[in-house]
Design a protein that fits this description.
This protein is mainly α. The protein starts with a helix and ends in an 11-residue tail after the last helix. The structure holds 2-acetamido-2-deoxy-beta-D-glucopyranose (3 copies). One of its GO terms (cellular component) is Golgi membrane.
């Protein structure tokens, strides 16, 4: 007993331990060791930021950081500019129709949610590199912020037609190869802040979004699960297994196919939630399109892709240039449920927390009961 007390005295640097019972001391020791373990594990997790980087995105981030340093003043000017500008295009949506009413409500909600989160961690001005994910059509004055896995193939094809890069008039006839590898899209990234602001304030600006969890399931299946792509499995899958699977064998790591649950542990790792250094296939929408800093004229929803796209073509008088035969995607509600059920309730809540801003900005509801 006395030896034990001496050890504890040394350990806690406390002089009067005589009146503390052995049980209490044991408890304190256990708590101390457990806390140390948790802190060690956590620190290990958050300092390991070299994890899984997408080559191109790494370059962008590097650039973004140096650019951010050099142009903090410019960036905050951009911010002011958007805060003060009045939405000039919303008037074109006021034609009374349920579709137009919803489009107006979408814009109002984005504005309200941005207001609500002003001054919080989400209120961070995008550096110039944030405009990488934009596509510009100067002739028709359109700017499209594209987000992977939200049906960007259709709108990229339309931009290809509008910029005379195809003789087709039906977007559905353009091959994915042409869309993703042959056609060139100009973005806002390389422009001076003045030029970028000029275009953003006078063009019709829109983004396409989708239920955030559905997009994650789609991205997971497509890049990491089945079928998966070797590049993504090597770059992200293998390190995810190595980090989040206890006792993973070298063969398992090499497979590059993490479970959905491991993928979610990666996405909800505190380091991943905040960083902009996250692959664009699962980066939050606000990190790719900056809805609080760019004044959008239209929020297209994947769930209403056909009617929203038609609506924009009509608003911009482009229906004589572009047609599109749209195949409704198979409803992925069942898939969503199947994958979400592989998660614990705690994981689902953490995932929601990580994507909560997107849910609110774009009006998607979260109800835990629909996933359990
Ligand atoms: C595309 O072609 C049309 C019709 O020939 C022409 O009016 C338009 O200026 C062209 N646009 C560009 C960006 O070259
Ligand atoms: C469109 O058709 C013209 C005439 O046939 C051809 O010269 C041009 O290369 C075609 N453009 C594209 C982008 O295929
Ligand atoms: C729409 O486009 C057509 C043909 O390109 C043109 O004749 C017409 O004036 C345009 N309408 C408006 C309102 O711009």
């Amino acid at each position: 007993m006395d030896k034990f007390r001496t050890i504890c005295k040394g350990f806690f640097q406390i002089k009067n331990l005589e009146h503390v019972s052995r049980k209490a001391l044991t408890l304190i020791l256990i708590i101390a060791i457990a806390s140390a373990t948790v802190i060690y594990y956590h620190t290990d997790k958050v300092t390991d930021v070299s994890l899984h980087r997408y080559n191109m995105e790494e370059k962008i981030i590097k650039h973004r950081k140096s650019e951010h340093k050099n142009s903090e003043e410019k960036t905050s000017k951009t911010l002011e500019f958007f805060a003060e500008s009045t939405p000039i295009h919303t008037a074109t949506l006021s034609k009374a129709s349920p579709r137009a009413e919803r489009a107006t409500a979408d814009l109002k909600r984005v504005k309200d949610v941005c207001e609500k989160y002003k001054g919080t961690e989400y209120d961070e001005a995008p550096a110039n590199v944030g405009h990488w994910h934009s596509s510009v059509d100067d002739e028709h004055k359109l700017i499209y912020y594209y987000i992977p896995k939200t049906g960007c193939t259709l709108w990229k094809a339309i931009f290809g037609i509008l910029t005379n890069q195809s003789n087709e008039t039906d977007a559905a006839n353009i091959t994915p190869y042409d869309i993703h590898f042959r056609m060139k899209y100009t973005n806002l990234y390389g422009l001076t802040p003045e030029e970028r602001n000029r275009k953003l304030s006078s063009y019709f600006v829109f983004v396409v979004v989708r239920h955030p969890f559905e997009r994650l399931v789609s991205g997971y299946m497509n890049k990491l699960g089945e079928p998966g792509e070797p590049y993504f499995q090597n770059t992200y899958g293998a390190p995810i297994i190595e980090k989040y699977r206890f006792g993973a064998t070298p063969e398992e790591i090499k497979s590059g196919k993490p479970t959905f649950s491991e993928f979610i542990n990666y996405l909800t790792d505190p380091e991943m939630v905040r960083t902009y250094n996250i692959d664009s296939h699962w980066a939050q929408y606000y990190k790719l399109s900056h809805p609080c800093f760019v004044r959008f004229d239209y929020i297209v929803r994947f769930e209403h892709m056909k009617e929203d796209t038609q609506h924009i073509l009509e608003l911009k008088n482009l229906t004589n240039l572009v047609e599109f035969t749209y195949k409704e995607p198979k409803t992925s509600n069942e898939k969503l449920k199947e994958y979400m059920q592989q998660l614990t309730i705690n994981q689902i809540y953490k995932l929601y927390e990580a994507y909560k801003f997107d849910f609110e900005l774009f009006g998607y509801d979260f109800d835990i009961r629909s996933y359990i």
